[in-house]
Hints:
Layout: H1 7-19, H2 23-39, H3 44-60, H4 64-78, H5 85-101, H6 105-121, H7 126-142, H8 146-160, H9 167-183, H10 187-217
TPR repeats: 171-204
Keywords: TPR repeat
Protein name: DUF2225 domain-containing protein
Amino acid sequence: MSYSDDGNGYFTRALDAEDRGELSQAETAYRQAIELFKETQQTQRELAACHYNLGHLYVVMNVRDKAITEYQRCLEYFGQITDSSKPKGRAHLILGSLFVEDRDYPRAESHLLDALGQYLDAPHEPKDQAECYVNLARVYNATKRRAQSVTAYNRALDFYQATPDSQRDQSDCYTELGIVYQYLGKMEESAAAYGEAARLRQQASHHHRHHKHKGSDS
Length: 218
């Protein structure tokens, strides 16, 4: 396939290299696209997309510090675009979850709350909103705000229930909720949460086996 030698050409090169699993080539092509977009004073949208995709690339490559830098840069550009609530929300969610993994709870909470703010401005996937609340619940639990953690887990479950095939995610959510109830000394609620987690895990396993069997018949 032939590519143009402008920013769009290198952006397409990067996407194709990423699809082939050639991640270092994709990284180089995204960097080249950024330089060319800057030279031609391209709109902020293209630059935001390059940094966003680079962030995703670094998450896949497990280079977390670089991923964080790229998502922060993409947010700087998204901040200059009026109709960008959806990608902004997603970038804040990913940054929040990365900071949770780093145990940087103040920054995690800030980004997750910013993500929720973006969700108010534009329609978002229920799964994204569920993941946001799960990560917030982890922040609240880690900072000993257990009652807020319970509320956040329950909000996450509301959104997971609007997400198809999310039994395994719901099961994980109930397991974590059970742990929080234990901290609070609410043993009945904890047992109920663990029981629901087991039921959903079994349901997810049955659903997976059924679809696997169905696929082998076709």
